[in-house]
Design a protein that fits this description.
This protein is of the alpha+beta class. Among the domains are: 42 residues; 155 residues, Tetrahydropterin Synthase, Chain A, CATH 3.30.479; 109 residues, no CATH class. The protein is built from eleven helices and nine strands. Strands 6, 7, 8 and 9 form a four-stranded antiparallel β-sheet that branches. Strands 3-2-5 form a three-stranded antiparallel β-sheet, covered by helices on one side. A hairpin with a 5-residue loop joins strand 7 and strand 8. Helix 3 packs across helix 5 and helix 7 packs antiparallel against helix 10. The longest helix has 242 residues. The chain is elongated and about 215 Å long. It starts with a helix and ends with a helix.
């Protein structure tokens, strides 16, 4: 009985020991889980948008992309916003910017800033800005003064027109000025946008302010100049419009005038066309009449030609008969002459035979003497030939050259003669064509003259006579050049009546002293009868000045009536 408790005690120890072995892993797992939960609660991660700075135990640590343990008692964290923040700054009215030319401008600009993504800048932003990086309005309250100062400093160095025309330069200068101040807070300026730029309304200028007073003066001057320029443009435009309207009215009047002229021209052309038609009808009628006259003349010409041909045939027969009789008479005379010639030839042959006998005797003597002379001559010729043969070669060469030159000259003369002959032939052909054309023209003129009436022929004769009449009168009046002076003694008043002498007829009160002087001068002419006769042919009376003028007027009237017909 005494050993039983010991056994029981040893068995309980083993059970407890086995329980411990079973619980130990569970405790470890639980401890690890608790530790993981604690670490998860204490571990803080940074993101792309938000970084943080841990301070306290272990010193300052900037966390950008990773994470870090943050012990509540030992550590403190400061979040830093890494996003770009838009800060709008507006200056207008009384707070407007003052430019270099002392004008006020209303400006609205947008600044895009962010924390520079490096550890030093993040630490600087966390230190100087704190939680303001997470709130844009709080950040704007802090840095707006820097932006306004940059805007004012840059605007003070530029005129209003430069600000308007050189916006990019203005923005760059503002960015350069403000970047240094922002870097002290760990910020960087991405860009600046000038969204609004305008002149401040004139009622916000303070006349008691030196800057505003100067700017107000310039602004008023510019406004008034612009008003004047605008008024000048408006007035010039109005004047130009009125001038254009006047020009348009003038053009309208010109067009109306041209239309009226065109209508009148059309009516004139219609009347001219109608007159041309009438003239054409009259001309065609005259042409038909002329063709009928030509046909009648042609028929008469055919009849006359037939009569002439018959007369020519009779004349040719008479001539042929006369020629036959003459030929028969001449043949008879030829036969008589032939018979006489035969008798003369027989007599001549007999005389020739007697002369031949005498000549034979003389020939014997002549032959002997001739042979002697010929022998001496041949000897002399042989000697001369030897002498001449030596110079023959040079002479022959010279002769050949002269012969060739003569041949060339002959060829040139032949070519020149041929060209001259061709030219003469062309001139002859041209002359022939010219003569044919002149003959055709004269023939047409003569035919047209044959068709003229006796009145027209008389008119042409008078016109030709009129062409030479001044020369005839001038030559006839040449003796008057010898007159040195003319003395006129008028004694009409003694008897109460004028007397006529010569060719001057007294006309009572119608004859004055000038007419008497002219009549006396007209009588003092050579060939007066011939000239007066020619003038009477033309319808003029050259005895007195009145008769001469009356004849000229009558001839002019007659010529006009003939031309109208």
């Amino acid at each position: 009985m005494s050993n039983l408790p010991a056994t029981v005690q040893s068995g309980g120890f083993l059970d407890s020991l086995s329980n411990v072995y079973v619980l130990a892993p569970a405790v470890v797992v639980v401890a690890l889980m608790v530790l993981g939960l604690i670490l998860a609660r204490l571990y803080r991660r940074a993101s792309k948008e938000i970084a943080f700075v841990r301070t306290g135990f272990g010193g300052e640590k900037v966390v950008m992309n990773g994470g870090a343990l943050v012990l509540p008692v030992f550590h403190e964290t400061m979040p830093v916003n890494m996003n770009t923040v838009r800060l709008a700054v507006e200056r207008k009215n009384a707070d407007a910017l003052i430019t270099l030319d002392r004008l006020r401008i209303d400006v609205k600009a947008e600044f895009y800033v962010r924390v520079r993504p490096d550890r030093e800048a993040i630490a600087m932003a966390a230190q100087t800005l704190g939680m303001r990086t997470m709130h844009s309005e709080n950040l704007k309250e802090l840095v707006e003064g820097k932006f306004v100062d940059a805007l004012r400093s840059v605007a003070a160095g530029m005129t209003m027109n430069q600000l308007h025309e050189q916006r990019s330069d203005f923005v760059q200068k503002v960015q350069q000025v403000s970047s240094a101040d922002l870097a002290m807070n760990g910020l960087e300026l991405e860009s600046v946008s000038l969204t609004g730029l305008d002149q401040t309304s004139i009622e916000h200028f303070n006349a008691n302010n030196a800057f505003d007073a100067e700017g107000l003066t310039k602004l008023t001057e510019q406004i008034e100049l612009r008003k004047k320029a605008r008024n000048d443009i408006e007035q010039d435009t109005r004047v130009q419009i009125e001038a254009k309207n006047l020009e348009a009215q003038r053009q309208s009047f010109l067009i109306a005038r041209d239309n009226e002229f065109a209508r009148l021209e059309q009516e004139r052309e219609i009347e001219m066309r109608r007159a041309e038609q009438t003239s054409e009808i009259a001309r065609q009628q005259s042409e038909r009449q002329r063709e009928a006259d030509q046909a009648r003349i042609a028929a008469k010409q055919v009849t006359d030609a037939a009569q002439i041909e018959a007369d020519r045939a009779v004349q040719e027969a008479r001539i042929a008969q006369t020629q036959a009789l003459e030929i028969a008479r001449q043949e008879q005379q030829i036969a008589v002459q032939n018979k006489s010639r035969e008798e003369s030839q027989a007599k001549a042959e007999a005389d020739k035979a007697r002369a031949a006998a005498v000549a034979a005797e003389e020939q014997v003597t002549t032959a002997r003497e001739t042979e002697v002379a010929e022998r001496a001559k041949r000897i002399e010729l042989i000697e001369a030939a030897k002498e001449a043969e030596r110079g023959a070669i040079g002479v022959k060469v010279q002769a050949e050259a002269e012969k060739q030159a003569a041949a060339d000259r002959a060829e040139a003369l032949r070519a020149a003669a041929k060209g001259e002959a061709e030219a003469e032939k062309l001139r002859a052909d041209a002359a022939r064509v010219r003569f044919e054309v002149e003959a055709a023209g004269k023939r047409a003129v003569n035919e047209a003259a044959n068709l003229l009436s006796s009145e027209n022929i008389s008119l042409h004769a008078k016109l030709e006579l009129l062409k030479v009449l001044p020369d005839i009168i001038r030559e006839a009046a040449k003796p008057m050049e010898a007159i040195d002076s003319i003395k006129i003694v008028q004694v009409d008043g003694i008897t109460g009546a004028g007397t006529g002498h010569g060719d001057v007829a007294s006309s009572g009160g119608d004859t004055n002293l000038a007419q008497s002087a002219v009549a006396a001068a007209l009588r003092y002419r050579a060939q007066a009868p011939v000239v007066d006769g020619l003038m009477k042919e033309l319808g003029f009376d050259g005895s007195t000045l009145d008769a001469l003028v009356a004849g000229a007027s009558a001839e002019k009237t007659k010529a006009k009536s003939a031309a109208s017909e």
